[in-house]
Amino acid sequence: MPFDDLLAANREYAASFDRPDLPGAAAAGIAVVTCMDSRIDPLRVLGLDLGDAKVVRNPGGQVTDDALTAVVLAVNLLGATRVLVVQHTRCAMASAPEAALQQRLGDAAGSDASWLRLGAIDDQEAAIRADVHKVEAHPLVPDTVEVAGFVYDVDSGLLSPVA
């Protein structure tokens, strides 16, 4: 089976799993919207542990409609009081215009992808500022929730705030 290695690793993980009573709320009050890039380990980057944060991942770490719904749930029902929007350096979504990314995807898939909105990012800092504003302006995000944007450097591991 193609997943045998992962199931074996899961059995090892489960054998020493000692957190069955972990609550569903974010213990550290954190929600993070970040990229799906495998070079980012959101909990470790922020010095957090299992159960500390709600993490939403998507291409580019953008506050899409689905990500915004997750944030609204996190701040109203799951204990989040701070929201971080985190994009990163050397992101594929910020590497080319939308049409070029669609072409690259179409070539890889062997099928036209021009109809699929991928969400290319022209200016990361401007996109982060817009996403922070989108969270702050949402009518279901209380004014007491702190929201900030960051760029994660995949080469150094450092987060840089975006003003």
Q: Give, in order, the helices and strands.
A: HEHEHEHHEE
Average pLDDT confidence is: 97
> From the helix content, strand content and strand pairing, which structural class follows?
alpha/beta
According to CATH, what is the topology? Answer: Beta-carbonic Anhydrase, Chain A
* Number of helices, counting only DSSP H or I runs of 4 residues or more: 5
Name the CATH homologous superfamily: Carbonic anhydrase
CATH architectural type: 3-Layer(aba) Sandwich
Biggest β-sheet: strands ordered side by side in the sheet: 2-1-3-4-5
First-to-last CA distance: 48 Å
Q: What share of the residues does DSSP label as strand, in percent?
A: 15-25%
C-alpha geometry: globular
Question: Can you walk through the features of this model?
Answer:
There is one protein chain. The protein has 163 residues and is α/β, with parallel strands linked by helices. The chain has one domain: Carbonic anhydrase (Beta-carbonic Anhydrase, Chain A), CATH 3.40.1050.10. It has five helices and five strands, in the order αβαβαβααββ. It has a five-stranded mixed sheet with strand order 2-1-3-4-5. The longest helix is centred in the last third of the chain and has 14 residues, at 124-137. It is globular, with a radius of gyration of 18 Å.
Structure, briefly:
This protein has 163 residues and is of the alpha/beta class.
